[in-house]
Amino acid sequence: MSEAIGFLLNDTARMFRRAFNARTRASGITALQTRVLIYLSRHPGIRQGPLAELIEVEPITLSRMVDRLAEAELVERRADPTDRRAWLLFLTDAAEPLLGDLRQTSQAVVDEATEGMSDAEREQLAALVERVRANLSRRICQKEEETA
C-alpha cells in the first residue's frame, strides 16, 4: 500500500505542476521558477548554494534559473560583503506583483484539485500530507546525521 501512496502523491504533484505551468505559460514563469521566487521572498539575501539545497536542485541548474530570472528583472544578485566569491539573491520590485499573481494561480489550481471537498476535508487532506512530509523530513535528517 505504501508504494501506492507514494505513487499517488508523486503523480498528483506532477499533475499540479502541469496544471500550474499551463496557466502560467504566457508569463514564461514555470512552477520551479515560482518556487525560487517564493523562497527568495521568504529568505531575502540567501546565497545560491543554500537556495539550491532548499529547492533540491543542482547548483548549476539554479544558476541557470537565476540567470533567466535576472534577465527578466525579477531577481538581482548582489556581492556578498563577507565573501567576494559569493552572491546574495534578492527579489526586485517587479517580482512582487508577479508573486501575487502566481499565488492566485496556485490557489486556483488547489481549488480545482479539491473541487467537491468540504472545508473540513480540505483541512484534513492538508494535515495528513503535512504529517507525511514531516515524517519523511525527520527520517531524512536522521539518516544524514548517521552518515555524517
What does this structure look like?
With 148 residues, the chain is mainly alpha-helical. It has a single domain (2-113), classed as Orthogonal Bundle (Arc Repressor Mutant, subunit A). Helices cover 70% and strands 11% of the residues. The protein is built from six helices and three strands. It has helices at residues 2-24, 31-42, 48-55, 59-71, 95-113, 119-147; strands at residues 46-47, 75-80, 83-91. Strands 1-3-2 form a three-stranded antiparallel beta sheet. α1 (2-24) crosses α5 and α3 (48-55) packs across α4 (59-71). It starts with a helix and ends with a helix. 14% of the residues are buried. The model has no long low-confidence stretch (mean pLDDT 90).
For the structure shown, list the relevant keywords.
mainly alpha; single chain; Arc Repressor Mutant, subunit A; 148 residues; three-stranded antiparallel β-sheet; globular; 11% strand
- Quaternary state, please? single chain
* Extended strand count: 3
What is the first-to-last residue Cα distance? 32 Å
Number of domains: 1
Class by SSE composition: mainly alpha
State the shape.
globular
Please tell me the CATH architecture by its name.
Orthogonal Bundle
Number of helices: 6
Radius of gyration: 18 Å
* CATH T-level topology: Arc Repressor Mutant, subunit A
Which blocks of ≥5 consecutive residues have pLDDT under 50?
Answer: none
Largest sheet: 3 strands, antiparallel
Largest sheet strand order: 1-3-2
Q: How would you name the CATH homologous superfamily?
A: Winged helix-like DNA-binding domain superfamily/Winged helix DNA-binding domain
- Average pLDDT across residues? 90
Compressed to H and E, one letter per element, the order equals: HHEHHEEHH
State the CATH class.
Mainly Alpha
How much helix, percentage-wise, in residues? over 70%
β-strand percent reads: 5-15%
